[in-house]
Design brief:
alpha+beta, 2 helices, 38% strand
Amino acid sequence: HWAEILQSRTAAEGGTVNDQYYVHYKDVDKRMDEWVEVDRIDIKSANSTEALWKLDDENERKLTRNQKRKHDEINHVQKTYADMDPATAALEKEHDQLTRIKYIDKIQFGSWEIDTWY
């Protein structure tokens, strides 16, 4: 998958220090954005015109046109900015910039640890 790197951080887990990057996958809903380890990024594949990087994904699979349509309907995939009226498009762009990076990875609820979605 092609992805845009939005932010970087150094994370310490289990006594090791790892560089991680927050990425947005091209043509995928921003709810799928995530922190990835540097070893998943293919450095040689840099697309300088769009600042995109190729990420290794062992579980990559192709969707048929019908599967994609059903996925978009179920998950309420948004229209593109070109399909919106200018006022709505401007508001959506501003909202996207403000909410581009999620800062809360997990929530602890009693003895349970929950991964956040948004």
